[in-house]
Amino acid sequence: MDQSLIPFLRSLTNITLKVLVGITVMGMIGIQMTSFVAILGAAGLAVGMALSGTLQNFAGGVIILILKPFKIGDTIEAQGFVGTVKEITIFSTLLNTADKKLVIIPNGPLSTGALTNYSFETTRRVDWTFGISYGDDVENFKKALNDFIAEDSRILKNPEPFIGLLTLASNSVNFTVRVWVNSPDYWDVFFSMNEKVYTKFPNYDLHIPFPQPDTQVNKK
């Protein structure tokens, strides 16, 4: 059985059993079920209107389990939060964030709003923008990045890595670097490359640019 179904079915079964036990007990103590059903129907209508949001969340939970836009263990971004799916219940979905916070998102908005599933595909593209100073050798830059890429076995050979000149900024020549990795390796590769650029650029006679203040002195 899909692990995502277990907490949902557990919650649904628990509520259903409580309702059935309540109806059975009322029948045993002599409450007329026809009158009770009529009262229950009227009360159900009022409660349904009051709990329209809750019913929407229940419907959202059903939609999530049928369409499966994500499953337990996936990393998703939705409703302004990013985290790993811990549990899917009948009314809400629980996420664990990177800083170990528990986020509870109602299933209604989750099923109808925009959602990004970072675990849906087995591979992801890592993008960087690195700048070098004007006057630095472009070929040295490309050699440095190709060396860094070749050193990291987590970076996939296919699709091929890409290095291209992005913009000529006021203080730097900016390049975009794109590689593909297996999804679980995304952040480790991202941070590792940043560190290599910072620590090893000097070995290639490359300089990380920073804004240069332009000071003018008016002599009278």
Compact summary:
With 220 residues, the chain is of the alpha+beta class. The protein is built from 6 helices and 8 strands, in the order αααββββαββαββα.
What labels describe this entry?
single chain; 220 residues; alpha+beta; SH3 type barrels; five-stranded antiparallel beta sheet; three-stranded antiparallel beta sheet; 6 helices
In total, the number of strands is: 8
CATH class assignment of the largest domain: Mainly Beta
- Count the domains: 2
Bin the strand percentage. Answer: 15-25%
Radius of gyration: 29 Å
| CATH architecture level-2 label of the largest domain | Roll
User: Helix- and strand-based class?
Assistant: alpha+beta
Can you tell me the residue ranges where pLDDT is under 50 for at least 5 consecutive residues?
Answer: none
* Mean pLDDT metric: 86
The count of helical stretches stands at 6
**End-to-end span in angstroms?**
85 Å
Helix content: 40-55%
H/E order of the elements? HHHEEEEHEEHEEH
Shape verdict? elongated
Query: What is CATH's topology name of the largest domain?
Result: SH3 type barrels
Note the topology:
Blueprint: H1 5-28, H2 33-50, H3 52-67, E1 75-78, E2 81-88, E3 92-96, E4 102-106, H4 107-112, E5 115-117, E6 123-132, H5 138-151, E7 162-168, E8 173-182, H6 186-200
Antiparallel strand pairs: 1-2, 1-5, 2-3, 3-4, 6-8, 7-8
Protein architecture, described:
The protein has helices spanning 5-28, 33-50, 52-67, 107-112, 138-151, 186-200, and strands at 75-78, 81-88, 92-96, 102-106, 115-117, 123-132, 162-168, 173-182. The chain has two domains: 5-117, SH3 type barrels; 123-204, Alpha-Beta Plaits. A hairpin with a 2-residue loop joins strand 1 (75-78) and strand 2 (81-88). Strands 4-3-2-1-5 form a five-stranded antiparallel beta sheet. By secondary structure, it is of the alpha+beta class. It has six helices and eight strands.
